[in-house]
Design goal:
Blueprint lengths: L1 H10 L14 E5 L7 E4 L8 H6 L6 E4 L3 E4 L3 E6 L2 E3 L8 E3 L6 E4 L7 E9 L2 E4 L3 E5 L1 E2 L8 E6 L4 E3 L6 E2 L3 E8 L5 E3 L5 E3 L5 E3 L11 E9 L4 E13 L1 H11 L3
Length: 256
């Protein structure tokens, strides 16, 4: 194509100043915003309460996969799902293709809509194939029901506690908080001698008497960042002893 244009320019039929680029044929080239590698959705259950619908991020109930390309002639679009032809017109109750482009707008999705979607733009000069986009349902389960535990630990000793978060898609972010015995009362743990890792293990590098919280539980929290939903479980409180200190004091005093 470029060689053909240069040939015309040098032959005197066109000059660089008056090339009508609108008549130059070009293959499709995508110009839309980049899609995320994975697009999550929440199934809108029948009978969903107003409170549940209000707490669900709006983008999870309606999702768009962008597909728009330039080209001359104007490209046409087609879609594949899991490697097979996908015709949006076959599902008018849940997906609409934007006029003049290939972008798909999904609503009222369910489990059958999950899959790997890929857009193709085609004209007489070629075909452009966009990066595939995985569409997945997002969800998070509950912790197993268990009564809070009381853990006996010696002051000054290290202690660590694991957390077994519930299944979640995507994988839940896990961290610990202090939760009051009354619903709705919680606070972050902000002590320099206490830390946690991404796997949800809580570390007391040494137990301090201030770690005793008579009215609160150390509580493992699992957060699905797509759903903006939290689940609480794996609670415990500390019973702190100082037997070693007393034994040491007794041993020292016996030599006086």
């Amino acid at each position: 194509m470029r060689s053909f244009i240069l040939l015309l320019l040098f032959s005197g039929h066109l000059s660089a100043g008056n090339v009508d680029w609108s008549v130059i044929e070009t293959p499709p080239q995508f110009v839309h915003d980049k899609n995320a590698d994975t697009v999550f959705f929440k199934v809108e259950k029948s009978g969903m309460s107003d409170e549940s619908a209000k707490n669900t991020p709006g983008n999870l109930l309606e999702q768009t996969i962008h597909c728009l390309a330039n080209g001359n002639p104007r490209p046409s679009y087609r879609w594949k799902k899991d490697g097979k032809s996908f015709l949006p017109s076959m599902f008018p109750e849940k997906v609409v293709q934007k006029p003049g482009e290939g972008s798909l707008v999904f609503s009222r999705l369910d489990e059958t809509d999950a899959g790997l979607y890929q857009c193709e733009a085609e004209n007489s000069n070629g075909t452009a194939v966009d990066r595939p986009v995985r569409v997945q349902e997002t969800w998070i389960r509950h912790f197993k029901t268990a009564e809070p535990e009381v853990v006996v630990v010696e002051v000054g000793d290290p202690y660590q506690r694991n957390c077994s978060p519930p299944a979640s898609n995507p994988t839940a972010r896990v961290y610990w908080i202090l939760m009051g015995k009354e619903p709705g009362h919680f606070e972050t743990i902000s002590s320099s001698h206490i830390s946690s890792n991404e796997q949800g293990t809580l570390f007391f590098h040494y137990v301090n008497e201030t770690d005793l919280k008579s009215d609160r539980y150390y509580t493992c929290t699992a957060e699905n960042i797509e759903l903006k939903d939290y689940k609480f479980g794996n609670q415990f409180s500390l019973q702190i002893t100082n037997n070693k200190r007393r034994s040491c004091e007794f041993f020292i005093s016996s030599f006086k």
